Amino acid sequence: MLDKSRSRLLLIHHAKLGRWLQPGGHVDEGEEVLAAAIREVSEETGVTGVPIREGIFDIDVHPIPAHGDQPAHNHFDVRFLLGATTEDLVRSDEVLGVRWVPFAEVGDIDTDQSVLRATTKLREPDNDS
Predict the structure, then answer these.
(1) pLDDT in tens, 25-39
(2) pTM for the full model?
(3) Exposed end of the chain (fewer CB within 10 Å): N or C?
(4) Which helix (H) or strand (E) holds 34?
């Protein structure tokens, strides 16, 4: 999610992972993936947004280790590029924090390679950002 000036990225402080990551969650049964992305951003941050680029922006695949009854598996993050129609932040109980991060500062916070890769991709001239 980009702010209205398209110079900042909306990130949440993930409760389980303890890192600043993009908002997101699971797709509900019968829900379209894009609709789920828009819903999750709003639920976690209070920000509403609309797609500013057609189609999928990025897919991140990362391994999840076995835990309890769950076997080890690959997790797929399907990402869309959304633009904020509102910018006031309302943190949900699901996350530890929420903030707008200027592109130049994303590398200075506790995040992961997938967020850094997406930020680099946003700066490429062929993106609509």
Answers:
(1) 899 999 999 999 999
(2) 0.88
(3) C
(4) helix 33-45
